[in-house]
Amino acid sequence: MRARPGAADTSLHPFLRLPGSNRLRTVPDGLWLHFSPNPADPFVDILCIEACASLQNLLDKRSRFAPSTSSLLAVCPVPWLLAPQDAKDKMPRWRRIKLLRQEPVAPLALPVRDVRVLYGLKDRQYEGFARTQMPQAHEYFCPMDALIDEEGASNPAMQALIARASGAANFMRLP
């Protein structure tokens, strides 16, 4: 389920935070959520997209998702849960999330089970990074132009990259 980007009022969109922290939050440039279908085992898997304007910005954003970082929570505000996914379908998001059995009255905070991050870099930075660095297992990189291209979703190279970022890509076959 797409969480970011969305409507202009970003206060109504899901965000990430560390457990026990009410002030510091991470708001990725793009965020997709895959909710557990089981109320007895609540979690969310996330795909974040981060556009990095400089190497310093990349280092800052990478540190937020480093494997040594403590656990993350994904927080979905009530107005976001009550709103429809798109204007054509009036069903509220919370009804699409199988683990919710009734209309929420408080924000939904779920532990993040799996994190994948796609970083967009300016061409020069991308070329240098790709020649000299080794990404972590949860990291994926692309040139910024591919990330912001209006036709990017239909680009076969981008589709292949996103397919590799899927948790299903780690298995020989799914049951």
How do the helices and strands follow one another from N- to C-terminus?
Answer: EEEEEHEHEEHEHEHH
Termini distance? 23 Å
Structural class designation: alpha+beta
The helix tally amounts to 6
Portion in beta strands: 25-35%
The low-confidence parts are: none
Based on CA atoms alone, the radius of gyration comes out at 17 Å
Sheet with the most strands, sense and barrel status = 8 strands, mixed
- Give the oligomeric state of the chains in this entry, treating copies of one chain as homo and distinct chains as hetero: single chain
SSE inventory with pairings:
Blueprint: E1 2-4, E2 15-17, E3 25-26, E4 30-35, E5 44-52, H1 55-64, E6 73-76, H2 78-82, E7 84-86, E8 89-92, H3 93-96, E9 108-121, H4 123-132, E10 139-143, H5 144-148, H6 156-164
Parallel strand pairs: 5-9, 9-10
Antiparallel strand pairs: 1-4, 2-3, 2-6, 4-5, 6-9, 7-8
